[in-house]
């Protein structure tokens, strides 16, 4: 994993399998901050539970596409709130998004919708081409689609 982690670092991003640990650290910091305003709060021992889902084989494996069902324990939701996190491995074909990834994204977001879980992924676009695109949202609201 270290060579792939280094490869991701060289292009200025985070290796996909480091995300659960980053989420865990962020949750730990949330609890520290919350305790500064309310000393009666005590953080749970495990602030993040991560279940890896590949959907190709539904087993823990290093693959190019992965989704996690995270249970996040925050000061607002100390008993936990489930979310779905979807990622592509930037070290595999530059994290490109093609028909296979599209089907994977569809399957994972369908799972999230069926279980009432928030989900998502961010699809980046090269800064050098951003000014070549414009979008007209219906009523100025992205959730209503494009005009």
Structural summary, described in words:
By secondary structure, the chain is an alpha+beta fold. It has a single domain (2-144), classed as 2-enoyl-CoA Hydratase, Chain A, domain 1. Helices cover 33% and strands 16% of the residues. It is built from four helices and four strands, in the order ααβββαβα. The protein has helices at 2-10, 19-37, 99-114, 127-130; strands spanning 48-53, 65-72, 81-88, 119-120. Strands 1-2-3-4 form a four-stranded mixed β-sheet. The radius of gyration is 18 Å and the shape is globular. The protein starts with a helix and ends in a 17-residue tail after the last helix. The model has no long low-confidence stretch (mean pLDDT 78).
List the helices and strands and how they pair.
Layout: H1 2-10, H2 19-37, E1 48-53, E2 65-72, E3 81-88, H3 99-114, E4 119-120, H4 127-130
Parallel strand pairs: 3-4
Antiparallel strand pairs: 1-2, 2-3
The strand order across the widest sheet is 1-2-3-4
Shape: globular
Distance between the termini: 44 Å
Class from secondary-structure proportions: alpha+beta
The biggest sheet, with number of strands, parallel, antiparallel or mixed sense and barrel status, is: 4 strands, mixed
Task: Report the C-alpha radius of gyration, rounded.
Answer: 18 Å
Number of domains: 1
Q: In the CATH scheme, what's the topology name?
A: 2-enoyl-CoA Hydratase, Chain A, domain 1
CATH top level assignment:
Alpha Beta
Order of helices and strands: HHEEEHEH
